[in-house]
Design brief:
0% strand, membrane, mainly alpha, globular, disordered N terminus
Length: 454
């Protein structure tokens, strides 16, 4: 923000007064609200026709999982996701339990708002004829509206927590608040629930509260798997500090929190609860991954088993690398730096890299490397991929003779390259702490006009 400040009159002087209302927290929250609202507007073309136009959802790049899951997972008849009867009529929710609970709660609010009173009758009807199409479209729209409001509240909560992670640097959270990736992908799925919990874990660790950190990580793992990798970052920091009690406390709290959310689903239907795990282990190379590029370029058909084993080995080696970097740094790395590196490694070798997965990295990236240049390089790769994946699904990227879509491969590779750029500068910051924009107590650092500060 320093560069922007200079463009409109220069940075804040030592004798300048501060506005009583426009505090950093309020400005960040306002920017976050505007950004998320723009994301809602971007989905308007699909909302207008209730996502019924299969071509429009890709041409206008407004696809979202939310409306399809309302009718495709039993929420239209308010079926409990972990009931045996639900599994007999619908595809079981392939998400962790916290996402299923959130979707079910939103569906319940939708039925309460619209006064649905024929749920018992719907359970006796064919799945493709639950209600009048216009009535069902109205429910879908309100389900999306209520989901969007809930996700907006979570996004504001995440922004507020990020403001308070680094004392004296509240403006770092601006990069989260105005992120184009946040606007474009925030409503694709319910990933922002996990983002909120990850932001909470960063805030709790900054306040030296390992038990709360672990509990928030455990709740995050109940929403998406990736918050589990924050425990790897906690491990490295605790190894450097020899803080064994903090490590044990955070790990135990994470386990207890995860069990607390998962046990009700296990008791309801263990087979339905296991679908998330089996679904992810059985899928092969999918959208956004380098595995997909390899298969399409070489004409291979890599099996899910091979991808699982090789990805696991590659990720394990990546984690060892993060451990070495974290231990060799001249001073203790920050939790966000290590967590960003671990999660980035998981995404880079994973067999699927959906557009909204950028949200997994977003709160970690803006705290790990609060520099506009590097964040914009990374975001440019993500925005390019966001556009190309929908064009690819629409078939507009196919070669003139049909068949493969080389430009989609280029988009994937550029996205990976942009992410590796950010990985490289974070690694450099860990090994050369004087280059870290945040710095360490009592340590000089290199400053730049593209620091996310004012």
């Amino acid at each position: 923000m320093a560069g922007l400040a200079e463009a409109v009159g220069g940075p804040l002087g030592s004798r300048a007064g501060r506005h009583r209302w426009f505090t950093p927290m309020r400005v960040v929250l306002l920017l976050t609200a505007v950004c998320f609202a723009l994301g809602m507007v971007q989905k308007a073309p699909c909302f207008d026709d209730t996502w019924n136009d299969a071509d429009q959802r890709y041409a206008a790049m407004c696809y979202s999982d939310l409306p399809y899951l309302y009718t495709g997972r039993g929420f239209a008849e308010l079926a409990w996701p972990y009931a045996e009867a639900t599994a007999e009529r619908y595809q079981v929710m392939e998400y962790p339990v916290a996402i299923s609970y959130l979707a079910y709660g939103t569906a319940a609010a939708t039925h309460l708002l619209l006064g649905t009173d024929d749920l018992a009758e719907r359970s006796q009807r064919p799945v493709d004829a639950l209600a009048d199409p216009e009535r069902l479209d109205a429910e879908v729209r309100w389900f999306v509206i209520l989901s969007a409001l809930a996700l907006a509240a979570m996004t504001l909560g995440a922004a507020a927590l990020l403001v308070r992670v680094n004392p004296g640097r509240p403006w770092d959270a601006v990069a989260f608040a105005v992120s184009p990736a946040l606007a474009l992908t925030g409503l694709v799925n319910w990933d922002l629930l996990a983002v909120l919990l990850v932001a909470g874990a960063l805030w709790a660790w900054a306040r030296e509260r390992p038990l709360l950190t672990g509990a928030l990580i455990g709740l995050g793992v109940a929403a998406k798997l990736y918050p589990l990798f924050l425990l790897g970052a906690v491990l490295v920091v605790c190894l450097r500090r020899r803080a064994w009690s903090d490590l044990a406390g955070a790990s135990l709290a994470a386990l207890v929190a995860w069990l607390a959310l998962n046990l009700p689903a296990v008791w309801s239907s263990r087979s339905s609860w296991e679908v998330f795990w089996s679904f992810n282990s059985e899928r092969g190379p999918d959208l956004g991954s380098l595995w997909l590029v390899w298969d399409q370029v070489t004409g291979s058909a890599t099996s899910a088993d091979v991808v699982n084993r090789v990805s696991l080995v590659l990720f394990a080696l990546w984690c060892v690398g993060v451990l070495v970097v974290g231990l060799r740094g001249p001073s203790e790395p920050r939790l966000a730096q290590l967590a960003f590196l671990v999660v980035a490694g998981f995404l880079l070798v994973n067999k699927v890299y959906s557009p909204q997965y950028v949200l997994w990295l977003l709160p970690l990236a803006v705290i790990a490397r609060p520099r506009w240049r590097d964040l914009l390089v990374w975001q440019a790769g993500e925005v390019l991929y966001f556009a190309c994946v929908w064009w690819y699904l629409a078939g507009t990227l196919e070669a003139g003779s049909g068949g493969d879509s080389p430009f989609y491969w280029v988009a994937i590779v550029l996205r990976v390259a942009a992410e590796l750029w950010l990985v490289a500068v974070v690694v450099r910051d860990v090994l050369r702490p004087e280059r870290d924009p945040v710095g360490r107590p009592g340590q000089s650092r290199v400053t730049s006009s593209n620091d996310v500060v004012v």
